[in-house]
Write the structure tokens for this entry.
Amino acid sequence: MNYIPHTETQTREMLKAIGVLSVDDLFKHIPASLRPKSFNIPEGKSEFELIEYFKSLSRKNAAGLTGFLGAGFYDHYIPQAVDALANRSEFYTAYTPYQPECSQGWLQAVYEYQSVICALTGLDVSNASLYDGGTALYEAAMMAVRLTGRKKVIVDSGVNLIYRTMLYTYTSNLSIEFVETPVAHGQSCREDIYKCLDEKTAAVIVQNPNFFGAVDDYSDICEKVHAKGALAIASVYPVSLGILKSPQEMGFDIATGEGQSMGIPLLFGGPYLGFIAVKKEHMRQMPGRIVGATVDSDSKRGFVLTLQAREQHIRRERATSNICSNEALCALRALIYTTLLGKRGFQELAELNYQKAEFAKSALEKIKGVKVMRSSPTFNEFTVCLPMNADQLVSKMINKGFACGFPLGRFYKGMDNYLLVAVTEKRTKEEILNFANSLEESLCS
Amino acid sequence: MQLIFEKSCSGRRGFSLPETDLPRSPALAKKYCRKKEAVLPEVSELDVVRHFTNLSRLNFSVDTNFYPLGSCTMKYNPKFTEYIAGLEGFSQLHPLLPQLSGGGILAQGSLEVLYNTERLLSEITGMAAFTTQPLAGAHGELTGVMLIAAYHKNNGSARKHVIIPDSSHGTNPASAAIAGFDVVVIPTDNEGFMDIQAFKAALNRETAAVMLTCPDTLGIFNPKIKEIADLAHSVGALMYYDGANLNAILGKCRPGDIGFDLVHLNLHKTFATPHGGGGPGAGPVGVNQKLVDFLPISRVVKRPDGTFALDYQKRKTIGYIAPFYGNFGVILKAYAYILALGKTGLIKSSESAVLSANYCLARLKKHYAVAFDKPCMHECVLSASRQMERGVHALDIAKYLIDQGFHPPTIYFPMIVKEAMMIEPTETESKETLDAFIAAMIKAAELSETDPEVLHMAPQATPVKRLNETKAAREPNLRWQP
């Protein structure tokens, strides 16, 4: 199978116009010594054969478990209209809108997406998207380093370990000092943060809700951070912003996050959506593409890529970031998703997630030996302490058809008996009660 | 068109959530709740559907228009791969599942996709191993430069700079710089190649790597590529291959055989996954034996019993560069595409891509200056320098092409070519389409002499005319506000 339209006659005509005899002549400047030592690829298959093959492969995955597993990546319902619209090939098979006159659809969609991210975070300026929540957090940290000219970053250990590890990987050759501060009773330890916070600090990074699911009000921390001339950065869960205090209301300078929860399938880890929003004064240090409104020669409103003097294709080694391709299609999905839910729907979605998680807490609490950690309020995910190793419980629960949560011992020392449980709007009352029953059985058996 | 926010009507709904029969728990304490509500649009589902359907129609795309955007490989994206990526067994799989105790067995299908894709990409490029984790081409470059840094550090060798030709993609120097290296830029010689004397002068034991695109961004295959690789290796530097132009050489030569130590590929270019308004892409990185130990974790491994697992126990790894295993949906589509084309199909793709580009070049070089007059590979670079003498720029020609229904070539890149127009037709466009495009290009060249005003006034057939980019940058308006 291939998708090449040239007939033999046309190929001959084209070769004649070029002035060569054969297609091989077009490659004759590649010396024989550089030709492939092997090219051992199987011959092509028909579409029908491949569909059958991939169906059988997909059945080797157990995607049908009832999901209470989140840990930063959530099983939310995606309205059908999201697929129907985002998959329109006029969106799907376009590319970066370098030529604005024939890309107004994409440019306006990105402008609207930027507006949604600003509305959710309360901040002033967003961009056309970054790769994922982790790379967005890295870009935010680097922005803070550039803006302050300082090289120390304080990271709360309630930030997803995956993101912390990514931060350290990316900066391993840059002599940036990272200091991790502890979480106690679910919340960031103020005293430890303030002890580390000094005139060398570029930023303090926290996550809300944090990895344990705990919700916090970081206003006090932001105030102290600003007093030292540093920047406050939050990694946030967008669905929670339907009810939670916004990063702007707490005083954060930069908010980032993983946008997967806004209409993007779990799909085994990607493509996802990194978002970022900042205060206006930091706009010129932003990474990536930004769309702005302007007017055309008839004074009619239109949209263009703007502030490009920050970017790699202009500034090369002096660019604010190396990003070129982003996650525009995922940003489009997030835009359509939030637009369908709308102002009230988004609040209700957040409220429903909160209520279902609270119900699940009460159901699990009835099980002997299970303790729900209640020292901090939570959104749709919470920590429970089990009378057994959480890893072992997870295996048992998989056999009963449940992805029952994330065993915290994987990321945190001394937490082998702790399980992180997520409950989205998709989980019904019946599923939650069955989950609690199965968990109780698993503890007994 | 109005913004979706401007179509908002207070109280209107576009989606309903299930009614809940749960007992109501006490609300979250006020201090944790937002006071200012997030102002999202209030619209019906039909409002949303009509808005985005109409917005989609304001774009050029591969499915609607010829899109010869140089360096971006805008080939046809087969539809069956979308169906595959939508299969629930793939789309609903939580990425943490195989990391749970006993969970690996539940993700065997997806792990097999990753493993097989890594093997196929290794064979296509002649490398020892691949990681599928990088999330875009530039992200692959950054991963590659971090691998280079780890390799030299492990050898106890302090290396300070990366050598990059001035014709490179902007992402190359940007990636090297943000990973902590200085960038040494080498000029292009009169033949269109990296100046070998300047290269030799810059190359020394502080050189960490040489980053090259091959064929280069002028669409030309550098006959001295092996010599450059040998020189770099002689001082202990590594050779980095920017795979943006791989569509030119499938089955014709392999970066690994030429002497490149690591490569990144753009699956969204060569392997036909949709680019969608700027992404998502996928930028897998392949390495030879020197660099295998440094690859990011996790690694997908095949056990003796034929099952697949994730390996995190890699002492020398650079760490995590992505949250999971890469843009799985994109990797899945690229894997399906490679299986569909197979060996012959892949080779034919490159042959036809090169044939089409040379055909465009042959037919247009009477009408436009050619940056460097030699056979091209999968793309050709013309210049509007002759037209410029009459006040017509590459930009004007681009805007005229839009009116004729063609997406313009990449313009003003590579930066070393004045008034550059970089045409990459790809293998999936018919001769009829190429002929129509060529006719429009020839007409533009004629108009530059007879009626340049038509070019200056273009485009006229678009929803908006030329936009004021200076105003956009000077008075940034980057969001809708209530």
